[in-house]
Amino acid sequence: MGRRLKMGMIGGGIGSFIGDVHRKAAAIDGMIDLVCGAFSSDAEKSIKSGKELFLSDNRSYSSFEEMIFAEKLLPEAERMDFVSIVTPNHMHFEPAKLALENGFNVVCDKPMTLTIEEAVELEMIVERSGKLFALTHNYTGYSMVKQAKSMVFNGDLGNIRKIQVQYLQGWLSTSVEKTGHKQASWRIDPKRSGIGGALGDIGTHAENLVEYITGLKIDEIAADLGVFGDDRVLDDDGNLLLRMENGAKGTMSISQIALGEENNLAIKIYGDKGSLEWQQENPNQLISRWLEQPLKVFTPNGNDLYPEALNVSRIPAGHPEGYLEAFATIYKNFATHLMAVLEGKNIEKPDYPTVKDGVRGMQFIYAAVESDKNNSTWTKFK
Amino acid sequence: MGRRLKMGMIGGGIGSFIGDVHRKAAAIDGMIDLVCGAFSSDAEKSIKSGKELFLSDNRSYSSFEEMIFAEKLLPEAERMDFVSIVTPNHMHFEPAKLALENGFNVVCDKPMTLTIEEAVELEMIVERSGKLFALTHNYTGYSMVKQAKSMVFNGDLGNIRKIQVQYLQGWLSTSVEKTGHKQASWRIDPKRSGIGGALGDIGTHAENLVEYITGLKIDEIAADLGVFGDDRVLDDDGNLLLRMENGAKGTMSISQIALGEENNLAIKIYGDKGSLEWQQENPNQLISRWLEQPLKVFTPNGNDLYPEALNVSRIPAGHPEGYLEAFATIYKNFATHLMAVLEGKNIEKPDYPTVKDGVRGMQFIYAAVESDKNNSTWTKFK
Amino acid sequence: MGRRLKMGMIGGGIGSFIGDVHRKAAAIDGMIDLVCGAFSSDAEKSIKSGKELFLSDNRSYSSFEEMIFAEKLLPEAERMDFVSIVTPNHMHFEPAKLALENGFNVVCDKPMTLTIEEAVELEMIVERSGKLFALTHNYTGYSMVKQAKSMVFNGDLGNIRKIQVQYLQGWLSTSVEKTGHKQASWRIDPKRSGIGGALGDIGTHAENLVEYITGLKIDEIAADLGVFGDDRVLDDDGNLLLRMENGAKGTMSISQIALGEENNLAIKIYGDKGSLEWQQENPNQLISRWLEQPLKVFTPNGNDLYPEALNVSRIPAGHPEGYLEAFATIYKNFATHLMAVLEGKNIEKPDYPTVKDGVRGMQFIYAAVESDKNNSTWTKFK
Amino acid sequence: MGRRLKMGMIGGGIGSFIGDVHRKAAAIDGMIDLVCGAFSSDAEKSIKSGKELFLSDNRSYSSFEEMIFAEKLLPEAERMDFVSIVTPNHMHFEPAKLALENGFNVVCDKPMTLTIEEAVELEMIVERSGKLFALTHNYTGYSMVKQAKSMVFNGDLGNIRKIQVQYLQGWLSTSVEKTGHKQASWRIDPKRSGIGGALGDIGTHAENLVEYITGLKIDEIAADLGVFGDDRVLDDDGNLLLRMENGAKGTMSISQIALGEENNLAIKIYGDKGSLEWQQENPNQLISRWLEQPLKVFTPNGNDLYPEALNVSRIPAGHPEGYLEAFATIYKNFATHLMAVLEGKNIEKPDYPTVKDGVRGMQFIYAAVESDKNNSTWTKFK
């Protein structure tokens, strides 16, 4: 085998939550080295962040443009292979575009862009560029989510009839944005987040998880959004009805004012042969229910799993895998694909979220906001 | 203290699920004796049922009319004090009316009546009669449900913002009604069940639980009902959005085709100070979440409970109380009230569901069906 | 069918925990009426208790002797059929003996007697009397315990290799016996409890549960008892090693000073084909583990149960059954047996704990105390 | 800040379970680079392993001696800073000794050595060398284990009275060692494992966890070891009684034939003010119980934590941390210490297991084996 991949990061200066997550996730499997970063638009801060990450000063840039153009000039053996974009939503499109158009592959945080127009344009740019693009819908990286998807795909549940999905957090229960909480301040700001608040930040994860596991498209939604925090303009809560393309029905409940909830993403899927239940906060269990058998609990690397679930476990059964490992699976699958491409090989069905998932996510946000404005009228993705 | 109360049962012949539940629930606390019954419209079957319940043949009647008129003629020391109506929905109104109008108190299963018109009329009949009427929304009898209600009432949770309630069963996942399943056959039949299927059977419990715990009225609902079973005409599934009178929002998910679910009634309530979670299948835990404290779990007869919760526990902490005990609490509170009345005393705020809860339940069914017909338009109770 | 059985209670005046439990447990299934009681040695108190239980004054006695002799003189249609003994341990033997020798059947709380000599003598008395004798090891009445027993019996687990059993409570963590706590005061008193403290009160339940489920005898034990409460003389804690007759090994941990524990009786059984786990505080789940299958969870009235488990469920799956129902199963099986005997019939393998279980329990206490005195030397039951 | 640390690995060729775990754990925090390895005594295999890890061929050695001597000759900027020893037990002492005596710091897997004599000698070698030595008792790296330790240390639980610890696995339930299972074959072999089987592999973790959390030494143990697998000579199961130096008592149950168990390390600690419960398979919860408060559940980065627990969480509450993160904490704390030392600084109380923990572990194994030979006589560590 060849060499490790070289990653350049955009955003994610020291102190940032998600930048650190991306770095750790990229590091776990030993396939990727962080070689440079535009960690901050403040040159000094960027260099300081780079130092703490053991980078030499000349690889810490003060803008993504600078980084992309400077790296492009480096010899291939030194040059970054891809960028990882971990900025707020309004800073996804431009860096992604510039990177792709200058020959760099891209990993990008979600929601993919600020507006749906950007999303559609980015889809075209990715196609035109021939470069790889991964969107970090990290929850699809869990072993038990892969098992769930495979079970549905193989017909174990029969026809899907009912879905319950929720993504509940409580960290915006009080007005933390008024107390200098960095994460909060941009998430409640339409200029940086777009037209969706909780919708974009966590709703897109819920939407993506439903479509990823079931293999079904959401056909239409009826949304009742809530804005509970003082002086907020974006949704911090949402209650939705779902209709799937196959006739299944369901509910989605999202919130960032569900006081006391930490990161409670959970999904239940009911078919006419079997049913599944999975909770992100207890990710190493997949509960299944059956017509004529007792409830069964699948575990990573445990008995009776599909290869897709076995493949992503790094450690034996009973050794809990967590959020970082799931996140790392996105990077690992992206890196495996990129390594193959660099060696002139191909990979069938690479398993990581792409620009198309990003477009779906933006369609979801727009449909939900439109439905809510129309007093929860059923609204299709478009 | 005086004497045990004497109960006559309408419906509930041997083999019936809910009749047996009512008998056991009435028996646990030693306050009530079953003295007679119109267990079946077939005289022979009724007598056979009575025999197995150790009743003498002359107290087993073949119709509720016969029972009510015969018992009325008995001396007070022998005569039943109240009837317990455990028949299918279409057989609630007439027996209740006749009993009340002939001086008997009534315990009645839910949903209260076949139609909303009957419900409204029954409310007037109860008032006119001056007799006691209890509706067996049994889930309100759990100690932890009382604790939840008290916590909300005392402001521990602050303002309620979000509600999730679900009542999921799977027993109608297949066409059991075509295989002679007695419970199923009347529940899918509009003539015996009314316009709601799952809505009436379990949805009313969910609706009642929300209003009982929060002390808030549901203001309007948007319903998307499902009919998944072959050849069914009534809903066997439902997904609803809720708006409460105080501005709180929420979801309700009910189903009898949620394959593998047993009797999964669960509720989550989020306020701006604290939150609660309770699951009927694990009823001896009440999970609470807080802004600045760790998650706390309350247990029956455990630490830090309100008197309302302590009062209904019959056994020490750690000794699980179940469905029958919760059901018995309805009977106990009704019996306590009735004993007081018989002794010429009064009771402040007797704690059991009444005819008013029954009317709310019927309004809920009608609003949900109307909303569903109008493609999930928001619809108020009326 | 004939008539309900008539029960006379010894001990269990109003306010007593276990007397109330016995009454409710006896009442649930509608097979037993409480007709008389010697609730207290204080005549006035006994009558007061009787009144609150709706008994006429002349059936409330001030001693068990008075009750037994008076009831014996009543016509059969009025006379009690059996006594239920719910007094502290030192008051089990004499009433049981007198009842049996005067033709009354007996239900008795555990541990069976104050001393092992009494236990052995009582075994002979029961045999000689030809009367029925049930010991209320109530935890064997749970549906999932029956399922566990049947699974072992049918070889589903293969050879049993390892056992973990614990019974942990925390109510004696502080010196509650010095603050007038009635339950505590006799339980820490050797004159009323015998040579075992926690050993007798809860250890015998643990011992009985192990032997009931596995069908194996405990061969020898090594015990390290603890006396943590100030001024106590009896064990309030115990740690034991177990060796079973078939070579299986295990641990037993019991405590009444396990602060915060409510009533945490739990057992794990490991065979060479499968394993089981059950917890009394969550009694409606039986967890099973397998070599080549995922973990499965059995539930009362759920899928794939043995008839023995199905038979004791009174309500459908998902409707939690609790402590009182399990306790009631002892009474129900005893009552069913007694009714058959009264009708001149027989019953094969009646399923309730007997005087033999009581003798085993006393042997367990004595072996544990002896082992502990010998610095935890392995000690056989004798 | 300076530079990343450079790690050389001994053992852990591709396909090895624990080598891969060490590499991922070392990588997560971006402080350590793998620069060389003696992955196998077969030169070709070692090089092949190195290649897959993106190492150049000249840094893949065919023996630890070769690696240590070759690396010693490299300039400081290239030379490894420490070795990580991930071989079977019989190959711990010699490489550790050689590394230390040649100026390299050491991370070593547990149990520390093959014999107690080696352990004692290694302790002296470490002291003499002035180098750092970390033993990977990785379970102490969990945030909730740190919280538990801090709670005990700060007196929240009061005096510790009772301990239950278990470490249950099922992977040796059948004779997998006869089917070419690599992990199994050396673990059941005294030449490579030493005198303890399950005792060394998992028992030492349980012992270490007890002493780490409670801050108390185990004073003596009474052990009943089991050898259930066909033709095995080492224990694959063990049941032990514990006496702590402060008078607390407890049980320890370990097994590798607990069929169906995955990696069930769990501990319960009871004090006279509060109690704790933690399970490795659900590591993001620490359950606490209290005299006069409801049960509380602590979570990583949740409310009311001690700094020691907060410090080790890498991600926000509700984002599960798993086995690799806990393992990484050992590496992170070791690396932080080593970086400080390299910069001439000092660290107060570095928090990772040391050679002293390794000696305790070996004493535990020897005491247990001795006790077992003497029919479970109480035996002190020596």
Brief characterization of the structure:
The structure is a homotetramer of 382-residue chains. Chain A is 36% helix and 21% strand.
Strand content of chain A: 15-25%
Count up the domains of chain A. 2
User: What composes the largest sheet of chain A?
Assistant: 9 strands, mixed
Briefly note the structural class of the backbone of chain A.
alpha/beta
Helix fraction of chain A?
Answer: 25-40%
Q: Output the CATH class name of the largest domain in chain A.
A: Alpha Beta
Element-by-element helix/strand order of chain A: EHEHHEHEHEHEHHHEEEEEEEHHHE
What is the arithmetic mean of pLDDT of chain A? 97
Q: Give the number of helices of chain A.
A: 12
The greatest interface here is: B-C, 44 and 44 residues
Shape of chain A: globular
Question: Could you state the CATH homologous superfamily of the largest domain in chain A?
Answer: Dihydrodipicolinate Reductase, domain 2
Oligomer: homotetramer
**Number of β-strand runs of chain A:** 14
Rg calc of chain A: 21 Å
CATH architecture descriptor text of the largest domain in chain A: 2-Layer Sandwich
Q: What is the terminal-to-terminal distance of chain A?
A: 43 Å
Low-confidence stretches of chain A: none
Say what the CATH topology of the largest domain in chain A is.
Answer: Dihydrodipicolinate Reductase, domain 2
Spatial order of strands in the largest sheet of chain A: 13-12-11-10-6-9-8-7-14
